[in-house]
Design goal:
With 430 residues, the protein is α/β, with parallel strands linked by helices. It has 16 helices and 14 strands.
Length: 430
């Protein structure tokens, strides 16, 4: 394999991990030790919020009056498509029972998580779509109690559009808390008395690290954040479109990787030449984030063949992966590792991020090697059931006893023996 880095990142997704881990460790320990008071104190110190943690119905109603009718329609547009896709996902898996041998039945049941915590970023940007992606999907799954939280946007709590979307999607409790304190509050059951059994949602490196540290005590969707994009493109791609798509994700934050994997040197050089112009056209906050992200984390990788490009892409396992080539169908069949795939120039990560239906809460930092993105199935436990007749014990019991004794587990063997003696008295089974 021959690849050439026309631009190589000077930082990796792991940069700064040790510092982040220490900060989050201290925060989680303090919040667990001191409870609600500590969570509120972090909210005051980090976000300047002096209000109550739980958002009231009056606050939600007031927020809704400030959201334009057009934006409400757009939120409903996104909600309808995300919900429809989640419903289709749910329908793809079902309870069943099958007879494995005469008198022996095994099955599966889908049981929704009782309480889910949905984190909705609300700091640099108002991530309305994240509320839809997490809360609406949880409700389609059948989650009874959905706790949602988002960072306050001033004295009135979270951004009005976020509150509107949270409420429309069916959140049972909304917390005006962001960052680590929001994650901790949901995990520990602060303010609600109902600890979340599953934490979902994207976030910055501190949010992602808090979820990582809490994993085991609670479930998490995946390691989600900071966001990343890879674009596979060949000589047929439009350099301006590719550059805009890379910038669109780099604006998330200064630690958001953007990778171009291409078989065309001409395209690569064209894209690199355009990046500064597209970044400079952004508003100041986004411009700063994208500038640093592209400088520190951006990469342009030139490959000799489509197979090499696919291999490199699978190694990176990008959260978002776009394909702009003359061989889109080939790439679709060949690629294995990604959070979500966007096929052809006609679609873009932006559509999936905001409203087209697929979920935008996706694995980062290589997690796409072993998991997909948030889906209705993440909010459901797939558990197994078993039942059998007494007659079926004749065959199953003898096999189980022999395997148990082979393994040196006499107690297991005797659990089979006692049934064989009871159900088949006088028979020499074993």
């Amino acid at each position: 394999m021959t690849i050439t880095y026309l631009k190589k990142a000077i930082k990796t997704p792991q940069t700064g991990t040790d510092e982040t881990r220490k900060i989050v460790t201290d925060m989680l320990a303090k919040i667990e030790r001191e409870g609600e008071a500590a969570a509120l104190a972090y909210g005051r110190n980090l976000d300047g919020y002096e209000g109550a943690a739980i958002v009231t119905a009056e606050m939600i109603e007031q927020a809704s009056t400030t959201v334009s009718d057009q934006l409400k329609d757009d939120i409903k547009f996104a909600y309808d498509r995300v919900t429809k896709f989640a419903e289709a996902q749910k329908a793809s898996v079902s309870d069943f029972e099958t007879e494995l041998s005469p008198g022996l039945w095994a099955g599966q049941k889908l049981i929704p998580i009782e309480t889910a915590g949905c984190y909705v970023p609300g700091g640099r940007y108002a991530h309305v779509a994240s509320a839809i992606m997490s809360i609406a999907t949880a409700k389609v799954a059948g989650v009874e109690n959905v706790i949602a939280c988002s960072a306050p946007n001033g004295k009135d709590g979270p951004h009005p559009a976020i509150l509107y979307a949270m409420n429309m999607c069916g959140a049972d409790t909304i917390l005006s808390l962001g960052g680590v304190q929001g994650i901790a509050a949901m995990a520990f059951g602060l303010f609600t008395g109902k600890p979340a059994r599953l934490l979902v949602g994207p976030g910055n490196r501190f949010v992602a690290e808090a979820k990582r540290m809490l994993y085991g005590r609670v479930g998490i969707d995946m390691f989600a954040g900071p966001t990343e994009i890879a674009v596979i493109a060949d000589a047929t791609a439009d350099a301006a479109v590719v550059a805009e798509d890379l910038v669109s994700q780099a604006e998330h934050g200064p630690d958001s990787p953007a990778w171009l994997i291409t078989t065309s040197r001409e395209l690569a050089e064209d894209v690199m030449a355009q990046m500064d112009r597209h970044i400079d056209a952004l508003p100041e906050v986004a411009k700063h984030a994208a500038t640093v992200a592209w400088r520190d984390y951006g990469e342009v990788i030139l490959c000799d063949s489509d197979e090499e490009a696919a291999t490199i892409s699978d190694e990176y396992a990008a959260e978002h992966l776009e394909v702009h080539t003359a061989k889109d169908e080939w790439y679709t069949a060949r690629l294995r590792n990604y959070g979500s795939l966007f096929i052809g120039e006609e679609t873009t990560v932006t559509y999936g991020d905001k409203c087209s239906g697929t979920n935008h809460i996706l694995p980062t930092k290589g997690a796409a090697h072993y998991t997909g993105g948030l889906s209705v199935h993440k909010f459901m436990k797939i558990v197994t059931t078993q039942r059998m007749t007494r007659e079926a014990n004749r065959e199953v019991g003898q096999a189980a006893a022999r395997i148990s004794r082979l393994e040196g587990m006499e107690g297991h063997a005797r659990a089979a023996d006692v049934r064989l003696r009871k159900y088949f008295p006088g028979e020499n089974l074993g």
